[in-house]
Amino acid sequence: MNVPDRAEIRSTAKEAVRGIALLRDPLLNRGTGFTEQERDALGLRGLLPAHVLSMKAQAERVMTNLRSLPNDLEKYVALNALHDRNEALFFRIVCDNIDEIQPLIYTPTVGLACQRFGHIFQRPRGLFIGANDRGRIADLLRNWPYPAKLIVVTDGERILGLGDLGANGMGIPVGKLSLYTACAGIHPTHCLPVMLDVGTNNESLLNDPYYVGQRQKRVTGAAYDEFVDEFVTAARAVFPGVLIQFEDFANQQAFHLLHKYRDKICVFNDDIQGTAAVALAGLFSAMRTTGGKLSEQKVLFLGAGEAATGIADLVISAMIAEGLSEAEARLRVWLVDSRGLVVKNRAGGLTEHKMRYAHEHPPVGDFLTAIRTLKPTGIIGVAAVGGTFTPEVLQTMAELNTRPIIFALSNPTSKAECSAIEAYRHTGGRALFACGSPYDPVALDGKTFVPRQGNNSYIFPGVGLGAIVSGTRLVTDEMFMAAAHTLAQLVSEADIKQGSLYPALPRIREVSAQIAVAVAKVAYDRGLAAGVPPNDLLGYVQSQMYDPRY
Ligand code: NAD
User: Hey, how many other C-beta atoms are within 10 angstroms of the C-beta on 236?
Assistant: First the structure.
């Protein structure tokens, strides 16, 4: 992967971009940052006000304006507008203020933005491929002007914990790819957001005059499969070697697509595999506090969907790596869904993806009873039902464990199983806590806890970078396991002391580079990479990371 410079981007255009066209091209525009010499050379004289601002001064101005806006949605809109005007400046401020801006361009604000997508729509970004584009998807992909190396694609059916948002879900691939660029330095021209607009079953969107997508019910069955297959085939033909990340598909589709493609082409599903790695890293960090081994834990999930089963699979693999048999490891992982504990003899049966986690056990109808019955050392909430880690649930975990592991991972904030303050308060400050949504530090009984987000954004940027840099043919579970170990190793002693199970987010580019190295190593070791490894893999990875500057 070579990071294209300004001259290269410009030379890919039919004519050198000058004058007003330059100011309108977000990849090349520097606004008032163009120097006196550039203004003369590029036909900009008179098109800009006199005063030249440095990038630093522009960034300060943007942040001042941003902070004066009344709410997060307006901040999202303002950031989007900057992204559309001046990509370098947008990514500069995201990189330099990641703690503050990630929640605005990704969860939780992106959830609200997707709900309001048609109403706040200004400029399109990425490709919208409709069900009626069957037979010409390659032509649509060729309309994209840049050499994509990474596609994030959704069909909008399960956006965060918000359900079917149809084409409005485009906010998610756009936000994720912004994080790929900010957190792992994947160049913006290498990133392509794609919406597979197969309709929506969301009646309120179908009746919304400003809904952006096709006004029809979702395409399903064989027609859906053939449509996705044409997209995948066309994407690989138009952008050879491209990495495809499936994002926010409803769970049947997500499992089906991952299963269909994972052993054949370079794909992964972040909701399943990225989530798994970030949660496993959090468990490894928790072990640094308790001093125990992962293979001694018993984990109970609330939720049995993509996130839960993805995490469960990787936890089981990690327990096996610590010496347990598969049967022993499986006995340490239990799931509760909307119908209670996932057990073999459930009346009405179980869907296929839940069967592998079903135990021989009498039925248990609710989560609290499941906790009292199974006595888990950790609970992981990924059911997208807000408030389900009730005070009683938390108190029970604290009665059963000296240091209960409490991961409330559902997004957005309204769906969180509990807040940070609830987790600490109801466990007497003993919870080893990770959250899906951002929370401020919590002061309790003279101690300050700093909860950190168990957010995939610690994992997927580095995995994507490692995959692209190595040119891997496949993205494997071993790579996600390596990513989890790497992330956990980067948590400092100071982090652990204050209750943080993840590194500070401002270290994300360092984290992503290290994860990319770990992923690329697996690719080289397993013969999946293109070519031979560079002598200094870390140095090479770092040299491939785009740094947004003029
Ligand atoms: P999913 O639709 O695949 O799974 C949801 C599961 O919850 C299903 O198994 C469903 O049966 C179960 N469920 C629904 N209501 C329930 C109830 N009342 N009690 C118990 N279980 C119930 O969705 P998913 O992809 O697994 O995502 C779930 C949540 O996890 C979402 O909020 C998502 O945003 C969040 N998530 C967070 C991260 C992160 O980085 N923190 C990553 C992935 C997913």
Answer: 17
